[in-house]
Write a structure and sequence with these properties.
The chain is mainly alpha-helical. It is built from 18 helices and eight strands. The N terminus is likely disordered.
Length: about 450
């Protein structure tokens, strides 16, 4: 189907709206600064900022505010963002020094910016054909990242230069691609793209196209398998295992393909790759097998192992104890510990963690916004879980395959969220949290009439 035909669909978006949606999704695949306007790297504009500005100026006036009901997950996320902004304002005008208050308000602005962009995207009517094109756009973003990473993987890089002449030292073999200065960002992006690509295998395509789609899925996954992120490596493996359960056509193809691979592999294989070769090919495998860097905290040395990340017991979770939040006192359960500048008490001194937080996606909203933020986030997850489960069985196959991709990723996220913060704008992940929430809610939004789904959505 041509773009012209997609854009002219009566029930879908007009040309300006649809092109903006495509550009918006693609903007998340390139998160390097466009200009160095300040010495603060995070403040410098990205493609997403340009897409957001264009949407505010040109797309917002075309939106019919009273039409197109907003999905339930958006309403919950909206209240969570409003509460975050309230907490940031209270902390900034009351308890924080001026320089730290500016950082807190900056991150509150980022959440508001993302919320408005998500609102614009959801208010645009989308036809089934247009939703399929948006599905392709997400896959195209994964392909772009995979292509961008090829020279970086071949030639290697141990430095990432950022604004102000600063540089970040990287372990050999680390991949960052066109994204933020952390392998967690590229691992999250590529595993999401992998899930969205694999879900197309069950679409109404010919056998040859399904094999092509499977090949593309493996290509978009490769940066996440070698980037250095262990959670990204296992996410891709688990998504593939889950896809075998939910996608019958993939399961049939893989069974045949595996039989052929075993037959010819047994005849042609000379020897299995050695462990050293596997470590050399994938920094993720290298870290998993034990070659992990010693990381220095103010409290001493520790091994950044998986067991360290999963640690629960002896009054702490992953090294965090309530003693670190003694300075906040009664404020912590009410308005969090200091929005995006949480002060920790270490070695009798106050240390502000600007732009970072606890490395646990479930406890992160509790740390940043107190008990209410935690409850709202859990409610958001529950609503998304229920609606994705329904939408992946939609009679509209474009809705079903889009929701299936996000369902595969979402289920794994429920596990990965314990050792990371994919939903949140932190740990160098730039705007990925906004991208993730946008895709999840888009997957929960049917292109057909709401009335046909109302009995199931309640």
């Amino acid at each position: 189907m041509t773009t012209e035909r997609v854009c002219s669909t009566a029930a879908g978006a007009i040309r300006l709206q649809f092109y903006w949606l495509c550009c918006l999704l693609l903007s998340f695949a390139y998160e390097l600064p466009l200009l160095e306007l300040t010495s603060m790297d995070r403040v410098n504009p990205r493609l997403f900022d340009l897409a957001a500005l264009f949407g505010f100026i040109f797309v917002l006036p075309t939106i019919k505010k009273r039409s197109h009901r907003l999905p339930r997950p958006f309403k919950t996320w909206r209240w969570l963002v409003f509460w975050f902004v309230f907490c940031a304002i209270i902390w900034s005008i009351t308890f924080l020094p001026t320089d730290k208050a500016m950082y807190s308000l900056f991150y509150a602005f980022r959440y508001l910016q993302g919320l408005i962009v998500i609102y614009l995207a959801l208010k645009i009517p989308i036809s089934p054909e247009q939703k399929r094109v948006l599905h392709y756009v997400v896959v195209a973003g994964g392909v772009f990242i995979g292509l961008f990473c090829i020279p970086e993987y071949i030639f290697g890089s141990t430095r990432r230069y950022i604004a102000g002449g600063k540089e970040i030292s990287l372990a050999p073999g680390t991949l960052l691609g066109p994204l933020g200065a952390t392998y967690g960002h590229i691992a999250a992006w590529t595993s999401l793209a992998f899930a969205m690509t694999v879900s197309l295998v069950d679409a109404r395509f010919t056998r040859q196209r399904r094999w092509i789609i499977l090949g593309i899925a493996l290509f978009v996954a490769w940066p996440g398998l070698v980037s250095g992120s262990r959670s990204g490596f296992f996410s891709i493996i688990l998504i593939f295992a889950l896809a075998l359960v939910y996608l019958p056509k993939l399961r049939n193809r893989i069974m045949v393909g595996t039989a052929i691979a075993i037959l010819f592999g047994g005849l042609l294989a000379v020897q299995l790759p050695s462990v050293d070769k596997m470590r050399g090919a994938s920094h993720s495998i290298d870290r998993f097998l034990g070659a992990e860097e010693a990381v220095t905290r103010d409290t001493g040395e520790f091994s950044n192992s998986i067991m360290e990340r999963l640690q629960i017991g002896e009054g702490n979770i992953q090294g965090y104890t309530l003693e670190l939040y003694q300075w906040q006192g009664w404020l912590l359960p009410l308005i969090g510990g200091g929005f995006y500048v949480v002060p920790h008490t270490l070695s009798s001194s106050l240390h502000y963690r600007v732009g970072y937080g606890i490395h646990n996606g479930y406890l992160f909203p509790l740390e940043q916004g107190g008990v209410l933020a935690f409850v709202l986030f859990i409610a958001f997850l529950v609503i998304c879980f229920k609606q994705l489960r329904i939408m992946k069985c939609s009679m509209i196959h474009q809705d079903a395959s889009f929701a299936m991709g996000m369902w595969l990723y979402f289920v794994i996220l429920l596990l990965r969220n314990w050792v990371g913060s994919p939903f949140w704008l932190s740990v160098g992940s730039e705007n990925f949290g906004t991208f993730l929430v946008l895709l999840i809610i888009l997957a929960c939004k049917p292109t057909g009439p709401w009335k046909s789904l109302q009995p199931k959505l309640k």
